[in-house]
Amino acid sequence: MAKLIISRDGQVVQHVELVKDRTTFGRHPGNDVVLEHATVSSRHAAVTLSGTGVAVEDLGSTNGTYVNGKRTARQQLADRDRLVMAVYQLDFVDGPRRLPDEEPQQDAVGALMSGGQGAARQSSFGLPSVAQPAAPAAPVPGGRIEVTSGPHAGKSLPLSKPLTTLGSPGAVVVVISRHADHFCVALMEGAAPATLNGQPIAREPRRLHDGDQLTLAGTNMSFFAAS
């Protein structure tokens, strides 16, 4: 399921699953998603679902809607695009990776490390100027996931992106979000077992701690706070 992860000042504040044909964003309480800040317009933008995919449309906002650093009136979205609406960043997630044990024809973790065909997309996003001065950037921690069971045991996945999705559509998908000084994990979809230290992973983000143990559909992994 397509999803937007909304953050402000480096902190994730909301996860929005895109289940409606049209989801509106803005400062006015009548919007589907309310973004409370003076630099956000009352009716700022809308995200629409159609047979051709997901698109964002600016609704005549004062400070504009940006996709990957470029101001846009309307644009089709791709997995891991970053939207900016005033002081808010919205990361679009669509099309999670498979679990390492299920990746066909290549070692998923190895490809991520080597930058091969299956490598996760790394992006740098320009941020627009808005009326409110931007807060100083906080240091970003390192971090990694290490596979501890199955044929890929011992392989590591660096958590170098703002969002890392793991799983297999139709089975289980989780997202790990990188914050200023910590990481969180949350369930995106699926009925297969997904646990953190033996407890089910819920849709509400939970903070990860060094040495935490994750299990996704029978594949065991460890989280390490330092890469």
TrEMBL record:
Domain FHA span(s) in chain numbering: 23-72
Pfam families xref list: FHA (PF00498)
SUPFAM superfamilies the UniProt entry points to: SMAD/FHA domain
Gene3D superfamilies from the UniProt entry: 2.60.200.20
Transmembrane parts of this sequence: none
InterPro entries: Cell_Proc_Reg/RNA_Proc (IPR050923), FHA_dom (IPR000253), SMAD_FHA_dom_sf (IPR008984)
Top-level taxon: Bacteria
PROSITE patterns: FHA_DOMAIN
Protein name per the record: FHA domain-containing protein
Organism field: Zemynaea arenosa
